[in-house]
Amino acid sequence: MAQERPEPADTSNGPIDFHEFIGDKWVVLFSHPDDYTPVCTTELGAFAKLEDEFTKRGVKLIGLSANTIDSHHAWIKDIDEVNNSNLKFPIIGDKERKVAYAYDMLDYQDTTNVDSKGMAFTIRSVFIIDPKKTIRLIMSYPASTGRNTAEVLRVVDSLQTGDKKKVTTPINWVPGDDVIVHPSVKTEDAKNQYPDMRIVKPYLRFTPLPKEQTSANV
Q: In the annotation, is 40 catalytic?
């Protein structure tokens, strides 16, 4: 889906070509139902405060809200005031829901989550896109539930570390915890690659991976 070149989009930082915006970086794209909404205001402030951590990992942030660019500019002032933040990443203006339709971000369940014309607002979608422009993760939250920025960052660490080290990450993993040797690696090869490997089951093999060897070491 992300590999298909989308139409240029207007953002709070000016027009962008999404593929050029991605470049050789990772991207976190996240949608919001509307401007001047309470949950969204807290979310965008939280992402703004954590942007440096994403940047250190080679990740760009870009938001989307179903409103106009002029509205975004005014709303950002509120966001920074409420959260004591300095929001710098772009927010796509998607009042006509063109991007929302393309990425299936619309709310089909909550019939009250609509604008004055009855057009569905977006749900709280999160897309993590890699430098090959492949969508690696999609998370969707209802409009009533705010996201967890630490979880988004944790998933980025898991994906980037897994790609580099050929490992997978178990439940509740955080950088520094043991990881799982990828199933594609044969046990005999794994013993050489991971000398401290612990075999629980033939299909479940753990190995230590210090935080310094993960993408969180920035």
A: yes
- 96 pLDDT tier (thresholds 50, 70, 90): confident
Catalytic-role residue among 22, 40, 120, 209: 40
Residue 11 near residue 20 (C-beta atoms within 8 A) = no
User: What does the DSSP assignment read for 148-204?
Assistant: -HHHHHHHHHHHHHHHHHTEE--TT--BTB-EEE-TTS-HHHHHHH-TT-EEEETTE
pLDDT, average across residues 27-45: 93
Euclidean distance between CA atoms 85 and 6, whole angstroms: 30
CA–centroid distance for 120 within its chain = 22
Residues 93 and 11 sit within 8 Å (Cβ to Cβ): yes
Long-range contacts of 13-18 (CB under 8 A, 24+ apart): 13/89, 13/90, 14/90, 16/90
Q: Order across the sheet with 179-181: list the strands.
A: 167-168, 179-181, 204-207, 198-201
What is the DSSP-derived secondary structure letter of residue 213? G
Residues 6+ apart with CB under 8 A from 58: 25, 26, 160
- H-state helical runs in the chain: 18-22, 38-56, 69-83, 98-102, 149-165, 187-193
Say how far apart CA 101 and CA 94 lie, in whole Å.
10
Are the C-beta atoms of residues 158 and 169 closer than 8 Å to each other? yes
Per-residue pLDDT tens over the stretch 112-152: 555 666 666 666 889 999 999 999 999 988 878 999 999 99
